[in-house]
Specification:
binds pyridoxal-5'-phosphate, Aspartate Aminotransferase, domain 2, 4-stranded mixed sheet, globular, 14 helices, Aspartate Aminotransferase, domain 1
Length: 421
């Protein structure tokens, strides 16, 4: 998130500061970039093709298409599944704006469906209801629901079996926002585990600087569907039809190409893909380290009765580790809690400010804060603490001790108000 980077960088920097997020970049990434720089081919080329092939093999997808960001990938995916002006796209309000803005790019509207307060993921029963209802607040009854975008919040996969079943019944394609969810698996409608991002019609990963693997900026679209793959491939680079072009390359000069659509400029460079390949090779190890930190946090905070821990799962990418303060148990609120962490040199952030509270969506659709009560309540109490492979054990212990000491210092307790020993 841009906000997390900003909060990391703008804070005064005592040498003991623990930033909220840091990428895990080493000599492998450096060497790969230098090789590309020296090759003379910097834009999309063979390195990107290799990255796509390797990524597809890791997640078990038929097609993987590298793009300049997950935002670009979500836009292309919605376009490819046929989202048109006036359509509705079901998604969670508890996400980054990229998830919903792509519907607006196409003249469609996000139809927000509240989250499950335990997982913080979109609630499948509410999705089912939204798919079934003919009359909707704010939108004409005849407006078509053209896509569903589940967001695997923090890296915990959504209840995909239920979502796939509901979407199938109503003939609505799923585009997974897997920006937080690499590499982690989700149970599909067949009861088996598949990589999150590969269960819907299309899935989109982010390689933004704070995500579980990064290319600085970048993303990947995966799909089993030949037609979607071809459309994404066409539209990510100016609507230039490679197939028309390739068919004649042997006979035609190298400068010739056919433009068949007004496409976009969403390709990923070989420079970025070189970093991506090195990150992909490390992804297992990076996940193991995130998981070890998450387990340490979960056991260290298990006794604290003033916070709610994130749902744990064997399948969790741990892009974020979110605590939620329990209202009334502390004498300080969430903002003061974060200020206190920052004062002690620990970066922290909030995921997410629900989209229905944002001026753009609020003004356009007339939302009230209580329209999505679960998203609102989660936002008011949530604190994201640092979780990334580069954290040392000492730093993890310092984060734990600081969080605990802030909680204990401001403890009000339950109804009796007595501090615990
Ligand atoms: C980061 C993020 C995106 C956008 O990713 P970019 O690669 O920066 O475009 C989309 N959805 C969610 C949930 C994200 O956190």
């Amino acid at each position: 998130m841009p906000t997390s980077l900003r909060s990391t960088m703008s804070t005064k920097s005592p040498s003991t500061e623990i930033p909220f997020a840091l990428p895990s970049i080493g000599p492998e990434e450096e060497a790969a970039v230098i090789e590309v720089l020296r090759s003379g081919w910097l834009t999309t080329g063979r390195v990107t093709e290799s990255f796509e092939r390797e990524f597809a093999a890791v997640v078990g997808a038929r097609h993987a298409l590298a793009v300049s960001s997950a935002t670009a990938g979500l836009h292309l995916s919605l376009e490819a599944v046929g989202v048109r002006p006036g359509d509705l796209v079901i998604t969670s309000p508890y996400t980054f704006t990229a998830t919903a803005e792509v519907a607006r790019y196409l003249g469609a509207h996000p139809l927000f469906v509240d989250i499950d307060p335990a997982s913080l993921n979109i609630d499948p029963e509410r999705v089912e209801e939204a798919l079934r209802l003919r009359r909707r607040a704010r939108f004409p009854a005849k407006a078509r629901i053209a896509a569903l975008i589940p967001v695997h919040f923090a890296g915990l996969p959504c209840a995909m079996a239920a979502l796939l079943e509901a979407a199938r019944r109503h003939g609505v394609p799923i585009v997974e926002d897997a920006a937080h969810a690499f590499p982690v698996r989700a149970r599909g409608a067949d009861g088996a585990l598949h990589f999150a991002g590969t269960l819907g019609s299309a899935g989109v990963y982010s390689f933004y600087a704070t995500k579980t693997i990064t290319t600085g900026e970048g993303g990947m679209v995966v799909t089993e569907d030949e037609r979607i793959a071809r459309r994404v491939s066409l539209m990510r680079l100016h609507g230039i039809d490679r197939q028309v072009w390739d068919r004649y390359t042997s006979k035609r000069p190298g400068w010739e190409y056919q433009v068949v659509e007004a496409g976009y400029k969403y390709n990923l460079t070989d420079l970025a893909s070189a970093v991506g390949r090195a990150q992909l090779a490390k992804a297992r190890g990076l996940l193991e380290r995130r998981r070890a930190i998450a387990e340490r946090y979960l056991s260290a905070f298990a006794e604290a009765d003033w916070l709610t821990l994130p749902l744990s799962s064997d399948e969790h990418a741990w892009h974020l580790f979110t605590l939620r303060l329990i209202p009334g148990r502390l004498t300080i609120d969430r903002d003061e809690f974060i200020r206190s962490l920052m004062e002690q040199g620990i970066g922290a952030s909030v995921h997410f400010i629900p989209l229905h509270l944002m001026p753009y969506y609020r003004n356009l659709y007339g939302f009230k804060p209580q329209d999505y009560p679960n998203a609102l309540r989660a936002f008011q109490n949530v604190v994201s603490i640092p979780i990334y492979p580069g954290l040392t054990d000492d730093q993890v212990e310092r984060i734990i001790n600081t969080v605990k000491s802030i909680g204990e210092r401001h403890y009000r307790g339950g109804s009796d108000g007595a501090p615990r020993g």
